[in-house]
Amino acid sequence: MGAVGCLTAWTRRWSMLCILLGLGLSSLGSAIVNIALPNISRSFASSDAATVWIVNAYQLSATICLLPVASLVESLGLKRVYAASLTIFVLASLGCAFAPTLPMLVSARLIQGVGAAGISVAGVAFVRVIYPHGMVSKGLALVALAVAVPGALGPTIAATILAVAKWRWLFLVNVPFGLAVPLFLAAAPSTIRVARPLDLTGTVLNALAFGFFVVGVGTLGLSDVRIALAEIAAGLVCFGLFVREQRQHPTPMLPFDLFRLPLFTLSVWTSVCSYAAQILAYVSLPFLFETGMHLSAVETGFLVTPWPFMTAVTAPIAGRLTIHYPASVICGIGLAALAAGLLLMVFLPTTPAKWDVVWRLALCGIGFGLFQTPNNTAMMTAGPIGRSGAASAMNAAARYVGWSVGSASVSLIFGLRGDHGAVFCLVAGIAFALTGVAISGARRFR
Hints:
The protein has 19 helices and no strands.
């Protein structure tokens, strides 16, 4: 896969603007919902653990679709897949806004996750196509910025909207971004397409593996334990069958060639751990603030903002550091800072001042910002440019697998611990962050 012809500076900037717009839309669509979970729970008279599936459904469907979407990217081209995914995301946002019941809202979020998967895979792959090898870290730093800034604004936007309107308006803010689709089609470069049929058997096994496993983990605390354990076991069996089928397939969705590179594999697992830690905190903090500390949704929105805001500030700095220092070192420092910030949140005073919360979450944001760009750069540049689509899919897959495991763990912990679940979620986040430190450090000895 590669860009056709030599891109002018204007084409590169305009294409990146459109890519960043879509990635920012996907990030905003995720970040803006977490703050509203307690409100939605009350609106539908549902339990907190059941309401978390608004997040789980989005992450699960996105995770399931990543590898099939990567195959479509290579056969249909980045431009078509990106534009179609953006359209699906916007239409699903309308479905979320007008959902009459919690099951309907969860269903719309499933469709929205499909669009998010395409945006993530095609968007990040375009960075490798648009920029020469020496400038990829710059492009990925912009991607991190585009994801972090909406993440920073998401809680504030959510708090502002919830102060004057119902939670349904949180999804309607995505709709105007649909106008970016024709702009993108006009600006983006074409890419080489490779004729390859969609692997239907692999797609089904992939969906069953992730679906059974994540649903099983997420329902451990909500339903019969034996049923949940059976779902987890079914997911593991399907994953084994999926790997076996892929090894025999002439054009597998799983990039076995990239996984033979230690730098790539360790970067993937570092990413899984870090994003699991992130979502454990992101989803549980609103419940900690609103249920445990009795703060309003508006106050919660502003208190959560320092994390993504500091990530946005730190990401470009981390991109420049990547040129001079190994990714393993920068990522290790970042994830250690994230773990420290979460630990400090666990020992937050019973009646803390607002500043006590702000500086702790700011530390988490700095740590996550230091991790993100160097790790993505290592992952995207470990293999040849012709495998950018596969590398991008695994980049996004690592993120969504981490988010899915993390959000399913939130459901499990809340189901088991009830009102005290938020603190246990933060402890689980610390464990994931420290595991990421260890895996990232192993890259020094590859």
